[in-house]
What we know:
By secondary structure, chain A is of the alpha/beta class.
Amino acid sequence: MTMKRTLMGTTVGLALVVGLTSSAMAEEITIATVNNGDMVRMQKLSPQWEEQTGNTINWVVLEENVLRQNVTTDISTGGGQYDVMTIGTYEAPIWGANDWLVSLNDGMAEDWNADDLLPAIRGGLTVDGTLYAAPFYGESSMVMYRTDLMEKAGLEMPDAPTWDFIREAAAAMTDRDADINGICARGKAGWGENMAFLTAMSNSFGARWFDMDWKAQFDSPEWKNTIDFYLGMMNESGPAGAANNGFNENLTLFQQGKCGMWIDATVAASFVTGADSTVADKVGFALAPDNGLGKRGNWLWAWSLAIPASSEKQDVAKDFVSWATSQSYTALVAGEEGWANVPPGTRTSLYENADYLAAAPFAQMTLDSINSADPQNPSVQEVPYTGVQFVAIPEFAGIATQTGQQFSDALAGNQTADEALANAQTLTTEEMEAAGY
Amino acid sequence: MATEHSKSSARFMIAPAVFVLLVWMLVPLCMTLYFSFADYRPMRNTFDAWIGFSNYASFLTSSSFLSSVMVTLQMVAGILLITIGGGVALALLLDQPMFGQGIVRILVIAPFFVMPTVSALVWKNMFFNVDNGLFSYLWKFFGAQPYDFLSQSPLLSIVVIVAWQWLPFATLILLTAVQSLSSEQLEAAEMDGAPGYSRFWYIILPHLSRAITVVILIQTIFLLSIFAEIFVTTNGAFGTRTLTYLVYQRVLESQNIGLGSAGGIVAVILANIVAIFLMRIVGKNLDN
Amino acid sequence: MARAISHRKKMMWTALAWGIGLLIFFPILWTFLTSFKAEATAIADPPVWFFFDWTTENYTAVLERSNYPLALMNSIIIAVGSTLLGIIIAVPAAWAMAFVPGKRTKDVLLWMLSNKMLPAVGVLYPLVLIAKYFDVLDSRILLVVILMLINLPIIVWMLYTYFREIPGEILEAARMDGANLKNEIIYVLTPMAVPGIASTILLNIILAWNEAFWTILLTTVNAAPLTKFIASFSAPEGLFYAKLSAASIMAIAPILIMGWFSQKQLVRGLTFGAVK
């Protein structure tokens, strides 16, 4: 505590000195970000950047949905309130194509090294050769499971399980009296919640959102198989309030030891093996399941920092983005909080770092998962769109949130799978027609 | 005496309020009206100033419109029912002789000061949550299966949250009304040997009717635009999408400003119909 | 004998009223207790009530991560500012409607109230564009004006109903004495109207404090009030009940304490003409 005080005091003092000597240079930038653990850590470490540059940061740290409201309103009206925004692989290409974001092809710090970025992640943030956002952390999805419960059930998790195995194992692990649910997965409605999971899952069942004429495909047998399987598995072995569970809720459940398996973002690996977890030493990892059709049910996402074109302090903003997404930031986090806590999934160099590989048992699985996701050809069938767990068109967020509500309702038992699929088909068709497809 | 003079100065005094409200209403409303006839989708860089009534057509004919109106009405009705029923009961209770009346009143009005986002977050996470919510512990304590409120009784859950916030408001207004009831009237009735419920039915309730109408009016105005509670708890899932929330989805989630604006205009028209309807009743009740 | 019964009755009413009062207050109490627990204790099964290691670490964490003083100040300025501005505009209007009613008065009043039903999100884009045009996004003055406009109908209505209860004869007497309009308002009406105005002010401060649509979407940093402060703690990764509770208590405590201290004034004028 005193340590921190002194440190803060020095920081303030230094900032003052720097401010006095170079007041003409010092700028104030506003950064909007999500209240996820890695971002909160960035906020905590940012005084070091402020100290180095003499600039100051106004942080706007918000819950994901509220953040999205704010930055979307700002970007689409050209409000110019933010200098750096945290966005994902869904927004970056769409906003970039609208010329709302600043190109990061040049003007980044010299040692920033764009070539070190993982190709899959970099590709998702690039439009026509222009990089529009710098990945802060990247993720795919995978299976996290309790090694002790798996053993107790007399089963062994393969490195690349099938859906049938997952369902069978989930049923075997479930012990409702002991409050253990075999499988935890997203059920909360939202394009970035249950629809991310279901869309990725549907890929491995051979389903697709749209055919080559942009016709909705929820009436296809592949989607029916996906939803039937999902609902069946969740009803057999899922937690009671599954329809309200998103990433955060499932994380809490897993940390409390209430999940046998959890299929979700690879970034969760450091949380389930971290200090808050009661089961930290009993977690194993496997690739997301498949159905033998050639696609696995894992997604690809990167929370990234982007600079809106409406910002008046783009150079300072670029300086900050370079700092926060650089290799030296990774080293900084490693020094302060340990290697297991560095933001994962963005750079090749991290996965060649022996210290990281030693500290993070989930590193190889994360890299394999990210590399096996293919946004260009997400489905077994031919599709007119890109994106694994989303469809990279502006209408998707609105549509998928509504279809997500249908499936969430089905998971809650308020309607059948067929009703949910029929409703999803109707409303997707309606929306796509309204959008002029 | 000088009525002409005071009339004109009255007009002069009303003018600022009318003026700012006119500006407030007209400028954004006219812009909304303008957008509602446009194909305005910023995410697509689309702005086509006149596409006729097609936004209205697609808003009104979409499968979600009618259900959202029904949900809105059910929600408002549910909340009014609880707050007025509970409010009358609480007002009568607080009017009884007791120790520490002031403190009880403080406890009862407290929820009114809690911001909607906070109360929704607290209820959702710490009470309704099926794994870690207090209700689940309570259910388990009595040997029942934990109940997932937000997906099984979503509308009721939201009604409970909002009613909890507005119960104090209703109670306070009704309490003032109860206290203004002359005790002679009641005592006379007691002397006549009128039983409790008939005293309530024939003396107290008629006396409260005016206060009840006021509560209905004021609360309806606020309840029609409930947003934060839905946004925080269900995000419009499980059939809790009200008209306001539907417009929100069109504007912010689908980024279809034209369609959303049309929805906004429809909502204003519907709200005004409700308002006129309410005013008729209330106006009559307030005039005499 | 009679006294004994009434005493027993009083005890009964006391028990019942306290029981219900505590039940209604319970969510706030529970939030308060949770805010002093460690995160793991906050979700302990079975729940712990009073006997746990009380800690202020959640408050420290919340303070460290966000600018609470600024948010608090913004909330105060926006709530009080919009209310006072509203009162200044509404008092003359309500006075005129109450004492010099014209044929159209009722219609004007109803029209004002119907304004209140404008669904906020419907006018979001127009408003953001207007605010951007005048370069007032993320400014307190914008929020003060917007919240004033949103609540003005309620202020006018509340004052109107209160003024109407002031007997007209008093005014006529004052007029006989040769008081002009200005004096009439300052010396005769205002003293009588103080309770009503005070109550109106209090109610509107509460409403403005708790407004959570415009205050979130039209602010970023400089004008961001407590409603936005809460959004940083609402659903983070990992366990968060205790920190959320601490942030919640910090957001509602100021207005709650104000409300408790001023409840007499609040209640006195809060009738909306409900009592004849």
